[in-house]
Design a protein that fits this description.
2 copies of one chain form a homodimer. The first copy, chain A, folds into 2 domains: 2-241, Alpha-Beta Complex (Amidase signature (AS) enzymes), CATH 3.90.1300.10; 262-448, Amidase signature (AS) domain (Amidase signature (AS) enzymes). Helices cover 37% and strands 13% of the residues of chain A. Chain A contains 14 helices and 11 strands. Chain A has helices spanning 16-25, 30-48, 56-71, 114-121, 158-165, 182-188, 249-252, 275-288, 304-326, 333-343, 347-363, 365-370, 397-402, 431-448; strands spanning 51-54, 83-87, 125-130, 171-176, 191-194, 214-219, 262-264, 292-294, 373-377, 406-413, 419-425. Mean pLDDT of chain A is 95; it is low at 1-7.
Amino acid sequence: MAAKRIPAADPAALGAREAAWRIAEGAMSSAELVAACLARIDAEEERVQAWVFLDRDKAMAEAEERDRRRKLGMPLGPLHGVPVGIKDIIDVKGMPTGNGSPIDAGRMPLEDAALIRRLHAAGAIILGKTVTTEFAYFHPGKTRNPHDPSRTPGGSSSGSAAAVACRMVPLAFGSQTNGSVIRPASFCGTVGFKPSFGAIPRTGMLTASQSLDHVGLFARNLEDMALAEALMGPDGRDTGAGASPGPLTATALSEPPVAPALAFIRTPAWSHAEEGTVAAFAELVAALGDRLDDVELPEPFARAYGWHRAIMTAEMARNLGHYVDRAPEQCSDKIRDLVAEGRGVSAPDYLGARDMAPVLRSSLEALFDRFDAIVTPAAPGEAPEGLESTGDPVFCTPWTYLGLPALSLPLLAGPSGLPLGVQLVGAAGQDARLLRTARWLVRLLNEEVPA
Amino acid sequence: MAAKRIPAADPAALGAREAAWRIAEGAMSSAELVAACLARIDAEEERVQAWVFLDRDKAMAEAEERDRRRKLGMPLGPLHGVPVGIKDIIDVKGMPTGNGSPIDAGRMPLEDAALIRRLHAAGAIILGKTVTTEFAYFHPGKTRNPHDPSRTPGGSSSGSAAAVACRMVPLAFGSQTNGSVIRPASFCGTVGFKPSFGAIPRTGMLTASQSLDHVGLFARNLEDMALAEALMGPDGRDTGAGASPGPLTATALSEPPVAPALAFIRTPAWSHAEEGTVAAFAELVAALGDRLDDVELPEPFARAYGWHRAIMTAEMARNLGHYVDRAPEQCSDKIRDLVAEGRGVSAPDYLGARDMAPVLRSSLEALFDRFDAIVTPAAPGEAPEGLESTGDPVFCTPWTYLGLPALSLPLLAGPSGLPLGVQLVGAAGQDARLLRTARWLVRLLNEEVPA
């Protein structure tokens, strides 16, 4: 993973876990880390445009306060002194939260989102708000791909992916309703993690689609993803929030008791995979040999895309329709078309689409008895050229619909040398096992696969 | 209450609690009770038509088995040896469950519903299946009102209400999606109880509308309703099932610590109340004096009827549409029209209607801080003449929409001398307090109000 290739002399190059560990040990101060991250932002922001709001002074003051706490010997959370970026659809008290729309520009939340409260409790410092597409849908924000500014960083969590990729921050948060974490992680070459549906409560985050919205994470190494355990579990307000998948760190960092088995699944969307992706996955399949089986999904999976679309458009029409009604001229065509489409979905069709998710999920139980994870592309290819589109989420859609935990791992490269994510998907609630399997896979490939 | 007026010499006249107590004490056998109930059925069934299926031999055999258990000193449940009637939309293994439709006639369930398993565990004997309207909606079954066979017993739990009213069984079960427990209880002069939404799991019951379906009870005295506590609590399968409102008996049978305060609410449906109902409630209001305040609902309650209708029609279209598609000629016009209407509801409107229920529920918190229960009619008037209609559920609609616990108490009479229920509605989850308040009210009126 990237963290290993960057000299640790630059605090901004550290992963979140390692940074927190160094701060706790007194080997580095939170102020040094925040200053290093701000220096990276100074160097790169003009080119990358990852942020909509930054409070440098407040972040430095909080870092100093964290350093004082440490010196006083007070108990430190797992993210003590570590700065993070927050997608601008998640409410942070004292920072404007604009939801990527001019309609909400300058909106000041009265309360922190549940995620923010838990990040504060873990000791993290909210550095600022990262660019989102309009209402976390498809109309792009200003962010550019750090690997090639003429290309999209993906969306909708564009700024969080880009900021982590260019070391402005070791950890950032986004959301996924279709492919908004896994796809930008793939395009920007970070690790992306969408925990099981409901694992991290969404209270205080813009509701796009209550049945599909997930909180997700971006980091530069896989081990950092186990930090999500501090953010999981019901908050008593998000009615979609479920049981926590349980502690992640111990399992995620342990060796699998037996060598994991992987299922390579092309999915019904395979025709969307670009030539370079097909070739890169052919190499991956060859490298993994008998550790990977070619598996086909049961037939009804072809319908998951339509079911996902019925739910997403109907719920987004319900939740965002008032923006379109109130200020149509300040909404993109994309969001206006979405609301119109969602208003045309009948309630029985919507309910049918929702009813099928648990049925499909059960149909995968046999697969997850045999395999530790599904291997599939994170996106059709490298980040597309241009900034008008944030790319195609089709390789994420079924796993979001089913609420399964998913990772994007920056293990492959496309024909232009840009990152190409390998998506790993686990059984519902088995987030820890997914992280353990992913770590095993990364080590295996670092040993066996030519870079 | 009725039980007090019938000589206890007839076991069929006993309430469920008292019958269970006598059986447990050895003062009466379960076989005697079942035989007495079967004798009542022999005497009345031709006139009342409450049952679609009865297994007399099996019921007698089970009664004898219950009597043997008692003699062996084995532990006895709270309904040990008591026969009950089950609405024919609730699955009982070994009995056909027809859902009130020729399409499902003779359908044999493979499993007991959650309610039935809990009834078995409590020692009850399933005497048979009672008449329901078609799919628990408006197209009537064969049952007649025991007080006047030219009139409807109400619906959709027609047979359960009528069977309890004419002492065929001390306790029977129905369901309510709009007014299907409270209305027939009012028309037949029984006590009807619809516990808080989700209190009794619905697994194994026909799903008409998953957001609105409630399990409900019919008995001839209020104290029997506390027996519902044995049936409450999540079963791990009904995803709509919530926490149990907690033990009922101790609170329900205790004296209120201070005299309860009641809120008389006419509701936006008051224009539906018949002249005799208006007069009877005027007398009740006068009799209760300052124990009752005249309260008006917040304005948005007028819209609860439309929101209830959007949810009910949309969900019933989703759940029952396949019957109409498969065998339209075996469906009534009422159910065909319902499915067509529900298919015309848009998903965003449906979601909006669902979102408003918790908002309205919160707007009642201040009311339930001040008042122990709402007093309102159970139905517009006495049971209407004729068997073509099961009457109007309009006085039940908002409380079903909100999932609040509700009772119908046979305290009043209409101009023809037929029963007129007083509906008591409690705060969500406060079923025990509702039962306690109702018991206090019944005692007060028996003392103070001329019969």
